[in-house]
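HUMAN: Spend a minute on the protein record below and explain its fold to me.
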Amino acid sequence: MDHKDVFAALQTVCSDVISALYGSLSSSHGDNTNRLLGVMRLIQEHGRAVEPLVTGFTAVFHHFDFDAQTPGNGYRTLVKVVHSCVNYIIQKALYIVSNYSGAFFRMEHNVAEMEAYCSALCQLRALLYLAQVLLNDNARGQLYSHEDGGLSERFVQEYISMHKACFYGRCLGFQFSPSLRPFLQTVVISMVSFGENYKKQQTGLGIAALSFFTSGKYVMNPELRGAEFERITQNLDMQFWKTFWNITETELLSGLSRIASSVVQVNLTLTVPAETFSLPLASDSSLSVSVAPPVAHWGPGPVNVRLISHTLRQGQDSAELLAFSRSEGPQRSLPNYLKSWSKDLDVPILSVDYSLAPEAPFPRALEECFYAYCWALKNCHLLGSTAERVCLAGDSAGGNLCITVSMRAMSHGVRIPDGIVAAYPATLLTTDSSPSRLLTLIDPLLPLSVLYKCIDAYAGTGSQTVQPARHLDTLASLGQDTVKLIINFTQGANNWLQSLIDPKAPSSSSSATQLSNGPSPSKSHSEDRPQEVREYPENFEPLRSRCLVDIQTPCSPIMKNPFVSPLLAPVSLLKGLPPVHIVASALDALLDDSVMFAKKLKNMNQPVTLTVVEDLPHGFLSLFQLSKETQEASDICVQRIREVFQQEELSPAHRKPKLK
């Protein structure tokens, strides 16, 4: 539907609700009816203001696409998110008009839903105003504001003070595929329950028990859940996020992997010792270059890797390889899509268990991945491969490392891979603003405060001491059954509650948040804001948060290092890269990273493709077994890897040199 038709429908259906409700003011719904009348008028006001903004973006956002066949950039995404919000309001309003006089109509619930989405529309309106400033200030086709300070700093102040809880309660995940919303709700409920007890002096079992008993109130009270999630994202440290996501990946996602993923015959954890070895130069195989083990921060150390193979191949059961294997000691969970990829591609996969920040900031992870890559080239005969074709693949930070490992290979003169497949890669680790990064205000998986914590940790600016990364002692010690109990409880209770409250409600209303609808900052809050954003019209102010904290903006020269932010790399470091295949998500806050990096490579005549999938969050590969949409996105990555293996050799640098 054309956006003009969408906003016309919004005005019409709001008027229909208002007209229908006037006759019921004296009924038992009196107070709630007045609330609903007020919120419908406010939605109409927001709709009238948002429509010309959307019209303006629609007229120009194609200038920021990678090419005519690949529509995708942050401006398009903001319009898409606004449409999703407005369409939900229209559906809910139609439901109210048809059912408000019925005996089973729950007025309180429906008023709360409308108030939550009205709040969401108000905040999205604010994001459109901020995006309009970016559009006016940046050059045509430029998605990032590289100005020091400017909107980047002002957006941080806005993020701190703007209300976000509505996006984590009733509106949670409204922008994503409906099939993912139950999972997102489960994660958020589990996170706030865990966060409430995180600092308490309890054993792992004690924290789990407390989390179990406190999760119920967050199922029953979406407003409380949203407010608590907002508090957690802005206050808790990086250690909390590592602990929680370790639990999620180890117990929940790996549990799904064991249940549904392919069975592989080879799944070996290997330790590559810290020993210098040599590789032939790509340009002249009669010459060689030494490859030293990783040394950053704490000196030479081994690298842990995982070998996955659907079938047993020559060399994989050799005594020489098994000498590298280890059966004890901490290890990270295996990404749950790699087993399926090994089967679909019929290739062995070597996954690098690189050290994580903040214990291991840049460049430790890069050194470990490069060392593992070179070791794999030299020892391909042990891994069940001839290495005639080598593809590097990774997602998010792993996508960044695939690119930077290839850059390092070129600078060292060793053979580069035949191709790179990077899913939603982070290619710019500075704090510059872009339209897609404005989505960090509403994203439950990548809020701005968490993104900044990750950047700060990787840059090492917030580290007090640096030591070898160790596996965290978390709820993993409880065993899978206990964690599943918590997950199943929150999920089951939510499903039961939703069906009880409103069995006829649209499936997209999976959670709940309520907030007053007018501009709500107290005078003291408004006066305390460090720097007023003046891009809003005089008659508009976004809703303000009651949870005000000072988010430290990461600031380090390391963030502009081309091996940290390859988008900033000079042509000399990017020229000669193998074909790069990027798979991004339209709803990812890092979408503009992918678009701008792909455009930069294209302008250098470097082989590059960009695919933008719809309706999925950052990290969709980890969720590939949860929905048809995530499985299809994973299949796109598999197809891109297959293309790397099937492509013709492009240059001598891609040919396999003789290994000494």
The first strand starts at residue 266 and ends at 272. Residues 203-207, 469-533 have pLDDT under 50 and may be disordered.
